[in-house]
Amino acid sequence: MKLTRLCQLRRLLLWALLSLVGAALVGAQENPYMVAYDHNLEEPGNLEVEYFSTFGTQRGGPNFHAFWSEFEYGATAWWTTELYLSGQTTFGESTVFTGYRWENRVRPLKNEHWINPVLYVEFEDINGADKIIKDVVGHDVESDFLTPNGEARREKKREAELKLILSSNYKGWNFTENTIAEKNLTNSPWEFGYTLGASRPLTLKGAAQKCNFCLQHFIAGVEMYGGLGDRYSFGLRETSHYLAPGLAWNLPSGWTFKLEPTFGLNDNSHQFLLRWGVSYEIAGFGQKLGALFTGKSE
Amino acid sequence: MKISLNMGFGALLLSGWCLHCAAQGKPEKTQQASVYGELEKAPAKYRAKANPLANDKDAAAAGKVLFEEHCAECHGENALGSKKAPSLRAKEVQEAPPGTLFWILTNGIVRKGMPVWSKLPEPQRWQLISFIKSLGPVESTENKTAGNP
Prior knowledge:
The complex is a heterodimer of chains A (about 300) and B (about 150). With about 300 residues, chain A is mainly beta. Chain A is built from three helices and twelve strands; from the N terminus they run αβββββαβββββββα. Chain A has helices spanning about 1-20, 150, 285-295, and strands spanning about 45-55, 65-75, 80-90, 95-105, 115-125, 155-170, 175-185, 190-200, 220-230, 240-250, 255-265, 270-280. Chain A has a twelve-stranded antiparallel β-barrel with strand order 1-2-3-4-5-6-7-8-9-10-11-12. In chain A, a hairpin with a 4-residue loop joins β10 and β11 (about 255-265). The model of chain A is unreliable at about 15-25 (pLDDT under 50).
């Protein structure tokens, strides 16, 4: 019985490896945002595997390196679902797993419009040691990160996060605005935040031959995000804010690299964060998975 | 604690099952002949649009590169279609005004599996159309052997 399970697991791992190696060519077109979302969803059936890293400076305590993996799947052309696993190392302390997030993005309108809404729903099961700063809400401030890992990880956070993503593509530019509402499912008030972003490829026309370094594959952008207080104290008082210019390099082979230095805009913010990420898009993952279990050819 | 963890894990499994179903159902939907009917829905304003890169001699070559990167996975290497998406060599597509194809690329056919491609800048969408138009039509019998509606 155990041996059969082991064989099944081995078969699954082998298949996952083969699908990575033999994945059909699919060029990604990712914007450089690390925090903001635009209205461009994952292509149906494709799985994007991503690794992101944030090095953060900390006043009054040790610096940290937070990291997370994302598995982003295009369930349909109007629905993308994503699983995150996150952890962090606080230098001189320890490395801890900080939990998981499950997010869904749904595009309610059929056609492209001047402004395109996307509804975002996320469930988070994380602990107090989480430092990925994937979004900033409420009164999140730098000093929250001073609690030692051993103590912080004992705090459980089960949160629901809602976002309204409003995004436009215009003459090669993308402009996006995310309004965030987050609620700890225990007895805590709703917290609010915002993200703004703008980006554009370095050139709008495609090159007539395949190339990795053509300007069309580089997208530059900038994002700004921060907290807006909570239900009882809405506003900018005791909130942190960040400004982050970034660059994405989308290779035709499906790989994407992102780099984003981030600067804190007030005394409540970390002074500097350095974020980078790498992702790979596996085309037709859903069909391959289906074929594995049903035995039908793709 | 244990119950909520189990619920979380259950939710993940359920979502996985839903994804699997979605992935299984999609190809059949995209195979429906009605996909070509979507071309008729392009607004007159778009249908009247001419390809601004029609006289650009590199447009089709650049479009070929873009097609291989973004479209061939579903529409097939020769644009003859696959189980996932219809042929782009069909008469309906080849005879459609460039502006109609531009509208389809920009808006997708989201409910039938065709994603929105507005994330590609406009000149790249026109380059794709130049390439698709340069391929010319292929008889419907060949389309059918390629798994098309």
